[in-house]
Give the backbone structure.
Amino acid sequence: MNDFKQDKNKRDEAMSFMARVVSVGFFGGLFWGIVGYFAYYLNLSKIGPALILAPWALGKWKSQWLGQLIGVIAISLISILVAICYRYLLSRVKSMVGGLTFGILLWVIVFYLLHPIFPGLEPISQLGRNTIATTLCLYILYGVFVGYSISFEFQELQSAQSRENT
């Protein structure tokens, strides 16, 4: 009976951890998407959250506030998948360097590898220093937020499990 209870507790902790990963991903995407919108609104960046809609949405509305709002929501949902990827790839990293590297990697993926699917995105050489610096900093901060939060929760789960086993 005691083994059954321990197995159930481990499953509950694992599910609770995944729920935390999902919430960190969603709220990280929401918060940093809103910060990205303010950077766009204040002309610190030529690129707003509505960029994510570029491959699918037609019309002028996607560059207006409604498109930016829908872009923030889309970023929040996609961020859940990004956080789950971080959980499986880098959750064991104990420092902020993992999140920093993850943020830079995401920036490179979006601005270099996925560049062809975003029709309105100018080449890096034409974006300007302000846009490059702002977006890179946002991606780094997002990566550190998601990475450090998930790694912290993972370390807490590991230490709780090791306390139970002793």
User: Anything to note?
Assistant: The chain has a mean pLDDT of 88. The first helix runs from residue 2 to 41. Residues 44 and 130 are 6 Å apart (CA to CA).
